[in-house]
Design goal:
- The structure is a single chain.
- Helix content is 40%, strand content 22%.
- It contains 9 helices and 7 strands, in the order H-E-E-H-H-E-H-E-H-H-H-E-E-E-H-H.
- The strands form 2 sheets. It has a 5-stranded mixed sheet, sandwiched between helices.
């Protein structure tokens, strides 16, 4: 990216939001060509470039444009992923509803997460968020589902799963599921915010051909 910035006389500042998400601020010099720079970045990072700061708004607009729906199963984030999606006008076309499944018995009763998964791996695990995705898709008419389960703190951590351990997942009706394990460091709401953003990034990786077409 730096060679492009030099070619088109643009100053850039990079800020890492997450390990796989970097915010790029670009400012044109006196004779800079900002539009050409942005087009070059889009070409170079065709499956990774989001032309705005708000990732969730980008996802929401793409889903609405393509007539696709999404739903959520959330534990430690307690509906934050759904609330952030619902900030934008017109999302009712892509959003029927969501599930907050804090307690294990609710994960089991509402989403069909098997007791064997909860007893063997725990609620904060890859098998659990995968099952939450599947349960959400079977419960709703959504094309995609996001699931989040973790330990936001300040208490509740263990040696094997410290505070800040979160699993996020995105899945579709064809059975494809993308999972990421997060080890976040920060206060409770920081962990929750970063977990939500990471879940949306899972969706972008799961179906890049839809969001970056």
């Amino acid at each position: 990216m730096l060679p492009l910035a030099k070619t088109y006389e643009v100053d850039i500042t990079l800020a890492q939001i997450l390990p796989n998400l970097i915010l790029v601020r670009a400012k044109s010099n006196k004779f800079g060509q900002i539009e050409s720079f942005l087009q070059g970045v889009k070409t170079l990072f065709s499956q990774k470039f989001i032309p705005q700061k708000d990732v969730i708004k980008f996802v929401a607009k793409k889903l609405m444009q393509k007539g696709l729906k999404i739903s959520f199963a959330e534990s430690c984030t307690a509906g934050l992923a759904a609330a952030k999606f619902a900030r934008y006008g017109g999302v009712s076309a892509s959003f029927d509803g969501s599930l907050v499944t804090y307690a294990n018995h609710i994960k089991h009763e509402w989403l069909g997460v098997e007791d064997e998964i909860l007893d063997t791996y725990g609620a904060v695990s890859e098998p659990c968020v995968k099952a939450m995705v599947k349960g959400t898709l079977s419960t709703t008419n959504a094309d995609f589902a996001l699931a989040i389960s973790g330990i936001a703190g300040p208490g509740g951590g263990t040696a094997s799963k410290p505070v800040g351990t979160v699993y996020v997942a995105a899945g579709d009706r064809n059975g494809n599921i993308e999972v990421e394990r997060l080890l976040l460091k920060g206060e409770r709401n920081y962990v929750r915010e970063q977990s939500v953003l990471s879940a949306y990034l899972c969706l972008l990786r799961l179906k890049s051909e839809i969001f970056f077409a």
